[in-house]
């Protein structure tokens, strides 16, 4: 069942499940949401910073702040403040029955990959991989990102994403459900029960600030666990600041990706503008997507809001 679409004038909740939120960036991001015509509701923990990891509150405080927004009947959508780390410890406390009883639009990426996986795996609820308030929205959206956010949440987004400059590692077409996000979160989720349903799916991969051998280890972990063999296609988003001994080397990184992914014998498309970089287009996790290799167009034929 599609989620209720966002409409101008709706209340948008800003949740903080992960790292501490910079107050100036939060203010700029909230002003951006208000400029788009929404009313902003902040989670009660959004200004906190505590604990050994300086997260946005204790586990209990981050969970309570999120649940305030989830249970608020006036909040039509929840957009996360930022990523980093902190969502994963809360997953067992996010009751699937409660999430299912209050289906809402959720939008975020990075650490929120783990949250999106629980939503889809445990509740069958889709979400959006897209901008966050004290990050992308605080710095202003580039034209391509602005074409997708908030339009995708309002059910009037583009029906396709043209990628004429995509780096096609393995040719071919695919058509399947989009899952995925931050690679490190996907690898960490193996065996937890909070994994995306991989069978017949299209996997989006992106990450930031990793040594190349760790990227390789994550891909091998997904391969050895049998997850990659279930896919019909792979989309590679931003791989920002991926280094070999501290030095970025894009051709070498491309060779690593091709070496690991080509043997899967499914289409692999790199250069998708999504993730820890700019642009960061909003993509529907849990919805059908289709890649036309000849035209180099990613079709988005299925709405997750109505």
What does this entry look like structurally?
The protein has 9 helices and 16 strands. It folds into 2 domains: 11-148, 3-Layer(aba) Sandwich (Rossmann fold); 160-299, LD-carboxypeptidase A C-terminal domain-like (Glucose Oxidase, domain 1), CATH 3.50.30.60. The model has no long low-confidence stretch (mean pLDDT 97). Helix 1 crosses helix 5 and helix 8 (212-224) packs parallel to helix 9. It is of the alpha/beta class. Strands 6-16-15-8-9-10-13-7 form an 8-stranded mixed β-sheet. Strands 2-1-3-4-5-14 form a 6-stranded mixed β-sheet, sandwiched between helices. It is globular, with a radius of gyration of 18 Å. The chain has helices spanning 23-35, 59-71, 96-101, 113-123, 133-139, 143-148, 183-188, 212-224, 250-261; strands at residues 11-15, 39-42, 75-80, 105-108, 127-129, 160-162, 167-170, 174-182, 202-208, 233-240, 243-244, 247-248, 268-270, 283-285, 288-292, 297-299.
The percentage helix is: 25-40%
Q: Termini distance?
A: 9 Å
CATH architecture of the largest domain: 3-Layer(bba) Sandwich
> What count of domains describes the coordinates?
2
């Amino acid at each position: 069942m599609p989620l209720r679409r966002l409409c101008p004038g709706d209340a948008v909740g800003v949740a903080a499940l992960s790292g501490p939120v910079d107050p100036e960036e939060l203010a700029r991001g909230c002003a951006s949401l208000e400029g788009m015509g929404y009313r902003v509701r902040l989670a009660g923990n959004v200004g906190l910073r505590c604990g050994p990891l300086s997260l946005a509150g204790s586990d209990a405080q981050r969970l309570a702040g999120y649940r305030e927004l989830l249970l608020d009947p006036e909040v039509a959508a929840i957009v996360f403040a930022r990523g980093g780390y902190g969502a994963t410890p809360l997953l067992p406390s996010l009751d699937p029955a409660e999430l299912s009883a209050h289906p809402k639009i959720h939008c975020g990426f990075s650490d929120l990959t783990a949250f999106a996986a629980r939503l889809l795996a445990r509740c069958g609820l889709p979400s959006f991989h897209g901008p966050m308030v004290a990050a992308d929205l605080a710095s202003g959206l580039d034209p391509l990102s602005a074409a997708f956010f908030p339009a995708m949440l309002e059910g009037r987004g583009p029906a396709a994403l043209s990628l004429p400059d995509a780096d096609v590692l393995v040719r071919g077409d695919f058509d399947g459900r989009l899952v995925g996000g931050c690679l490190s979160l996907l690898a960490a989720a193996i065996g937890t029960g909070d994994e995306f349903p991989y069978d017949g799916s299209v996997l989006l991969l992106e990450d930031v600030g990793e040594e190349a051998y760790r990227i390789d280890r994550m891909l091998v972990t997904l391969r050895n666990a049998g997850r990659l063999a279930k896919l019909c296609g792979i989309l590679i988003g931003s791989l920002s600041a991926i280094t070999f001994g501290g030095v970025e080397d894009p051709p070498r990184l491309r060779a690593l990706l091709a070496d690991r992914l080509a043997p899967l014998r499914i289409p692999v498309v790199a250069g998708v503008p999504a993730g820890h970089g700019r642009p960061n287009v909003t993509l529907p996790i849990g919805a059908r997507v289709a890649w036309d290799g000849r035209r180099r167009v990613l079709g988005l034929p299925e709405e997750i809001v109505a």
